[in-house]
Design a protein that fits this description.
binds 2-phosphoglycolic acid, eight-stranded parallel beta barrel, alpha/beta
Length: 232
């Protein structure tokens, strides 16, 4: 069964949540909503799973403004998104910090969705594989547990541009090879970057794809309902 993960990012206000809860009704463990962490309690106790968009790696302590993996798990959160390109670019997270966060999350039973992806410059220089391998190697250093990988080309996020079906398929195969080599586990690999209710029909036909990480379209009720219908 494929996974559909919604990344709301820093969107929706308290007043939008009720409509979302009313209109997006899914009875499926493979649907994961990752709201702004403040709103997580509203999404718990539904017939789907809840994820958090970021955590710190320590269990507790003097880290003003942060949320720990154990706090998230104790609330009923099951998934965590780590290494998103916005965290890497805006908040300067690097692979070694992401590695610490992955460890902290696995220790606390959170399922990790690790985002990796190349920039447009790297793609045009034919460095995609090299970049992805470095991200995987450093983020998954000494990790021997299952981690879900989300392949999110940076140039595709929020741009309405996606790689071709063939490019995605080849890259997913490559990611699986690298992760098996590193962890001995065949990972689930999701695709993320401008997935919407129109391109989902084509993207969903990619042979080796295990699901999708969806940003912009996940906060549009009609779009996400169509995506759910197509994939789950
Ligand atoms: P997008 O975002 O679907 O809006 O391109 C995806 C993501 O950032 O995870």
């Amino acid at each position: 069964m494929k996974l559909v993960v919604c990344n709301f990012k820093m969107n929706l206000n308290a007043s939008d949540i009720n409509e979302y809860l009313k209109e997006v009704k899914v009875d499926n463990n493979n649907f994961v909503v990752c709201p702004t962490s403040l709103y997580i309690p509203y999404f718990l106790n539904n017939k789907y799973k809840v994820g958090i968009q970021n955590v710190y790696y320590e269990d507790k302590g003097a880290y003003t403004g942060e949320v720990s993996p154990s706090q998230a798990y104790s609330m009923g959160v099951n998934y965590v998104i780590l290494g998103h390109s916005e965290r890497r670019e805006i908040f300067k997270e690097n692979n070694s910090l992401i590695n610490l966060k992955i460890n902290g999350c696995l220790k606390n039973n959170l399922k990790v969705i690790l985002c990796i992806g190349e920039s447009l410059t790297e793609k045009s220089m034919h460095k995609t594989k090299e970049v992805l391998k470095k991200q995987l190697k450093e983020c998954l250093k000494d990790i021997k547990e299952e981690v879900i990988v989300a392949y999110e080309p940076i140039w595709s996020i929020g741009t309405n541009k996606t790689p071709t079906k063939k490019e995605i398929e080849e890259t997913i195969n490559y990611i699986k090879e690298v992760v098996i080599d590193l962890t001995d586990i065949n990972p689930k690999v999701l695709y993320g970057g401008s997935v919407n209710e129109k391109n989902i029909v084509t993207l969903n036909k990619i042979n080796n794809i295990d699901g999708f990480l969806i940003g912009g379209a996940s906060i549009k009720i009609d779009s996400i309902n169509k995506i759910i219908k197509e994939v789950l």
